[in-house]
Amino acid sequence: MTTTIVATLFSSKSSKSASSCSSSFLFKSTRRMIGTKALVLLLVILMMKITSATSSSSSGEAMRRVGFEEEGDGKTSSSSSLSRRSLKDVHLGFSHSGETKPVAQTKLSTGLTIEHIQKIAKDNTIIVTWANHHYLDFARNWINHVQNRLGLSNFIVGAMDEKMYESLKEEFSGGVHTWLMGSQGISKEAVKNDFGWGTKNFHQMGRDKIRLIRDFTRSGVNVLVSDIDVVWLRNPLPFFKRYPVADVLVSSDQLRSETMIESLKQKKFMVDGEGLEFHICHAASNIGIMWFLASRGNQELTTEWVDRIEKDDNLWDQSAFNDLKSLNGGCQTQVDGSGVQEAYGDENKKMRVKMGALPVSLFANGHTYYVQRLHERERKNAYAVHATFQYGGTPGKRNRMREANAWMGEEEEYFRGKFMSFTPRVERDFFRSSTESGGNNNSSSDSFEASSEGRNDDIDDDKETVRGGFDIFVERGWPERDSTFPSIPTKEEKVLTENERLVNFQLAQVNEALAIAKHLDRILIIPPILCGIDRVWFPHYGRFPGSHLQLPFICPQDHVINVEQWRNKGKFRERSFLAHPQMPKGAVSPDSSARVVVNGKRTNEAFKKSRTIPMEIIPTTRHNADDKTKISLRRCFEHHDAYDSGNDGKVEACDPSQNVAIQNANTVVSLENPAENLEALEQMLGGEANSKKFLHFDTMLGTTIESVAKPESSVIPDYWCCHMKGSVRYNPDGVKGELFTTKS
User: CA 375 from chain center: how many Å?
Assistant: First the structure.
């Protein structure tokens, strides 16, 4: 019987078994009491008992009989002894299924013992992750999801530094299994800090991770290894257990779903509409989420993995895994539609493991979840999302999770204070079809402009489905083929200049709002931002090649704002803040809110030439529009069974422009004319509105006579990347004057 372990890595002090003793100590003690011949006889009897134990049907009992030695002089282990341990060579017996059992004296690296693991495991399952103190709030988020949202307790967290270990013990009051994992290659001071992607310490941290994986695969248990920037949304263990023949299940950097690419082969293997990706080598594997069976093949794989990265300091641990996956024909093996295929060949091209690629709509990467929102399009409940394909370093990861309401790493301070929001607008001419705007696309002229004549467009127009518009972006989005358009050649290309115009107009409104919020001693809730084209770190034609991204789209904040360098750090909240899973109950209510009606918009030309972002676009460049061709511009992420989103499908609670409590605020202030300056605006709002926790403006356009934006409070715009000759930085200051043209 195989023990299953899911591992979560955190730094912490070594947790040692009080009952462990060394074989050296046993040998010396016994020799003093009996003669050599008697000792030989006793050793034979002991070996027979150990062999009997390992052939027992209970692997757990066998594990409890395994002894552990300290590294070095063979002295007896104690609770105060060395906090660092290394794994001894293990002689393994194999069951009829090829699974392994520990039969010799072993100890796991960094102080873990099999006894410790057995105490944590439930239903033969355990989970592991790791982090340093820099990622304490990520650890908090990870634990809150796994423990509090999913109700799992069979996990362990490795702490890479003492400060992290002490913080975990203090914050969770012993309710989290943790140990001081340390690092073999990072200094004691550096191990507490941000490693930075691609740095030397980043690669050293990766080597600590792979050594840990190797140790677990030698322990006789199955293990789920999770990076700390993975959010667990549903219990994944039932999914993994559907594939008992798979030695390895691993997440993928693939950007589109292929779970039904060959439906005749794959359909019979689907369970509740869920299955693996078609082929393990259609994209690079991502080692942020890995499920390992305790098999002989996995022991060979992880041992060679460690050997390779320790011999070459420049070899990335993830690249090394992908090399091993495809070794000696590993990517040329047959597929049967199950998603599980043989891989990792030996010198004779005999495959040593069976492997599967986890579905990217269910075990999502940062592009399929945060950008494409593929799980929503496929109407799936994702199990996990890994913060990859993002910008802005660690702050960018955190902001992505917050925008998706998948972050539970806050302290109470994050919800204190008073907040401000506003309804953003985009220029109306984007909603004309190509034929109306002089484009070359022969699409229908049934545009929003033509169909909305006579309407009062500032009332609830952000809830509409609109027909037509944005054709210059739509034509480059999915389902158009990657080969249709070449990479954007220069910064003068129209699709790029139009995207700049679209984004700069919105960021200019954000800067006005930031100045007002700062003057009113409030924190701005950044509104949703509509982008025309994707951001990638190499030249492309408008969307990440290979992806199924529809254009335009509600883009992550890190696509347009440099969240890592923004000097006004901490003085904004993400667009979905009102629906934050840690928001105190009852905090957002009509009594705590005030709504501001800006009547100065009536004479504001920018307001008249703009409208709010619709909920959905039906492209007129495509025939037979259905749910797959409609372009969703929903603000709130549709979630999974770990949350009650409160979204009835019509009104989005996360968006202040639609939140029922905000829009039904008991306090409503009408600003009849634009304010001359910030002091005048504060006076016009009045004491009652200024006292409310949440203050929402129906627009920024017409709020003041002239721009009040200031460099010290404005966003740091980021770069759009990339055309063939480089990148382009957004410049909202260049258009802010357009926001204040008035007509009497």
Answer: 13
